[in-house]
Amino acid sequence: MQVRDLVDDNPDLELTVAAGVRELDTAITWVATTEVDDVTGWVDGGELLLMMGSNITRQEDQQRRYVRNLKENGIAALGFGTGIRHRVIPKALLDEADRVGLPVVEVPYHIPFVRITHAVFGALNDERDRVLEDALRVSNELTRLVVRSGDSLTATMGFVSQELGARLELRDTVTRQVIAEAGSRPRGRVEQQVELEFEDSTFPLALTAAKEGTITEFDHQVLRHLQSAVMYEFARRNAVDVARLRLAGDLLTDIARGSLTEAELTTRLGAFGLAPDAAFAALHIIDDTDDGEEILRKLTRALGDLRRSYLATTSQHAVTLLARVGDVEQAACLAAEFLRYVPTARIGVGRVAKGLDLGTSLMEARTAVAESRGQQVVTYRDLQSFGPLLAVPPNALKLYVDDVLGGILDNEKLLATVEALAQHGGHWGNAAEALQVHRHTLRYRANQIRQFTGLDPDSPDHRSQLWMAVAALRIVRLREAGHEPRGDRPSVTSEGGDIARLGG
C-alpha cells in the first residue's frame, strides 16, 4: 500500500498529512515503532515509523538531523503521535521533511498505534492476495502457451513483456549470445533492472528484465514463473536436439564410410532441411581442452552470424560439420572465424562437394586434423600424398592395405618403422632417432618388414609402396572409427543456429 492509501482509505483513523505531500505515493511495506534518535540498524527500509516524539528535543538542528536519518534509512513515512510529549509536530521537523521528501502523518492522541498497525497489515495482506491471484493468472496463461505453442519461448516472453511493460532478454551465459528477446527498449531512464540466473538448471541461461518503472513483487513472481516456462521449453528442445545430434552423427558416419546410395542421401539430408544438390565443405574441429558439446555451443554463434546452413555432430573433444559454402576459400575463412570462439582448436577443412562426394570431404577434414603437425587450420590441399587415396572407394582401399601390409597390420612398431623410414628418405640414423631406438633395432625391424611383406625398406620403390599403404591404413582406420555422437548434454542454441539449420 501507499501512504496515500493509508490516509484516504481509513477515515476512522483521523490521520492528516502534515508534510511530504509530494511523496504520498511512497510504498509502505511494514510498520515499526521506536523512539531512538538514530534508527540505523533498527529498520530495513519501507516502514511506516510510529513514534510519540519522546526523543525529539526543542533543538531545531536535532529535529532536522532526525528527519534526515529517517530518510537515509529508507523510512516510507513518519507517523507522529501528538498530545503526549508534543502538542503539535515541531515546525523544523516538518520543514525538513518537506525538503527531503519524507511524508509525515499526524496521529491524534486518542488513536492507538495498534489500530494503524492493523490497518496497514490488513491492506498488505489484501495486496499480497491480489498479487498472488494475478501471478496465478499469468502462470496459467504461461502453461497454456507452453503446451499449445510450437515456439513457446517467443510466445511466453512476448506475453510476459506485455504484462510487465518490460524489456526481456534471455542469454546463453557461455557465449553471451542473446537467444530470445521481447519488448522494446525503455525510452527513458531505466529505473530498475533485474537478472535471474538459472542456478539449479543444467542450461547456462540468464534472464534480464528492464523497465522504466519500479520492479514490483508481482514482477518478480511473474519472472519466476517465466523461468519455469523457459526451463520446460529448453528441456523439450534438448530432447529434440539429443535425437537430432545422434541422427546427424549417424548420417555423417554413413557418408564418410560410403555406405549410402544417392537416393538414401537425398532423403536423409532432406530430413534436416538441407538441399541434396547444395555444395558443402566438411570441417573437423578438435580441442583437447574442451568438450565437444561446449565447442559446438561456441561455434553456433559464428554459424548463426554468418547465416550458414549446416549439419553438425559431436564426439568427446571434437565437432564435425558440413557447412554450406561457395568454395574452399570461404570454408577456410569460416575455420579462421571459428578460432575466435575456440582459439586452441585445430581445424581440418575438406573440399567443397555435393552428394556422395561429401564422404571424401569428410575424410579429408578428419585426415587434415590428424596431419596438422602444429598448424591450426589445415585444408585438403595440404594433404599431399593423402589426397589421391581419399578418393579411392573404401572397399578398394581396404583391399589394397590388406594386400601390401597384411603380414604386419597388427604390429604397430613395424608400421611406425615404415613411416619413419619414409619420412626420412631411408636415412637409417635419422629414422632411428625419430623412433628413439638403436640402429640395430631398426635393422631388425626392417628385416621383419621384408620377411612379412616381401618388400624391401632399403629400396626407394618398395619404401614408397609401403608408405602409401600405411597412409591408406590410416584413412581406413579413420573411416572405421566413424563418429560416436554423444548428445548426452544439453545444447543451447538460437533458432537460427540449430544443430541442423534449415535453409539448405
UniProtKB/TrEMBL annotation:
Domain of life (superkingdom): Bacteria
Domain CdaR GGDEF-like, first and last residues per copy: 261-369
Domain Purine catabolism PurC-like, residue spans: 11-123
Region listing for Disordered, in residue ranges: 482-504
Pfam short name (any one): PucR
InterPro entries cross-referenced by the UniProt entry: CdaR-like_regulators (IPR051448), CdaR_GGDEF (IPR041522), PucR_C-HTH_dom (IPR025736), PucR_C-HTH_sf (IPR042070), PucR_dom (IPR012914)
Domain PucR C-terminal helix-turn-helix intervals: 414-472
Listed Gene3D superfamilies: PucR C-terminal helix-turn-helix domain (1.10.10.2840)
Family: Belongs to the CdaR family.
Name of protein: PucR family transcriptional regulator ligand-binding domain-containing protein
Taxonomic placement: Bacteria, Bacillati, Actinomycetota, Actinomycetes, Micrococcales
